[in-house]
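Reopening this ticket.

The earlier resolution said the output was attached, but the attachment link was broken on my side. Pasting everything inline this time so it's all in one place.
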Amino acid sequence: MARRRFGGRNAIRSVFSILWIALGCLSAFYLFTLFTGQTAAVSRTAATAPSGPAPAAQAPAAAVAPSGTSSADVSALQGNIQQLSQQLAALDGRLRPIESFIGPAAKLPPSNSVSTSMPTAEPKPQPAPKPVVQPPPPKPAPAPEPAAAPAPKPEPQAAAAPKPQQQAAPVAAPPPAAPPPASSAPAAAPPAPEPAAQAEVAEEQVDVAAIDPVALPPAANDGSTRYGIEIGSVASRDELRPLWREYLTKHAALVAGLQPRRVHAPDNKWRLIAGPFANAQDAEGACSLFKRANRPCAATVYAGDAL
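Inline output:
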């Protein structure tokens, strides 16, 4: 900016210098013309003058002739000089406001260094690196809940309806048969059941309903008689085996570990007895499971012949 101001002021000074030089040249040319014109006029006058003395009247005329010619040139030069002076005055009047404006700026100290190079583009700020998002730690697996003990599944009901004879037997069941004499009981007693069969029967005895104890004969509680359950009654002896096979196929969980026995009742019907059980409570618990499966059952003495 300072250089531009100095350059403007130097240009103005140069214009003024050129004008003054031109004016000086014109002035010198005018003086030279004036001087050479007078010298030529004098020489011409001297050459044309007669050797004798000339009359006094001719001298002013001779002087007027060259002076008239030179005065025209002088007037033309003066007119040109006046025009130049007027132009210089007008130019000076126009330049004075500019000079008054540039003057204070010219007094400022020059700048030590001014960069003229093209402005370099500012480097763009690098974008900040995105923070690495750490994945959340995996949640600990919930502790497995203790599995609930599976409830005993009820045995499916028989597809075929029981025979009318088997349904009528529990309705009009006669009182339990009297135990045989003590002498014949040991002969008819079967071998003791295996421990595994007793364990299975014990596992099945869950949620035993509170029922009235079955009236057993007096000899049933003396510790010498085993207990059983009556699970069917048929009119013919030959129908006992099919009834037992039906229990084995459709209700295997109920009769697991039990041994079948047959007893001929006073009403001429054949009873299917399963057992043995250690006491009356075990027999009643097994009956509750049979009743849940919609099967007839009653606690009784474990006696009779094998099928």
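Reporter confirms the inline version is readable. Residues 2-44+63-106 form one domain. The radius of gyration is 78 Å.
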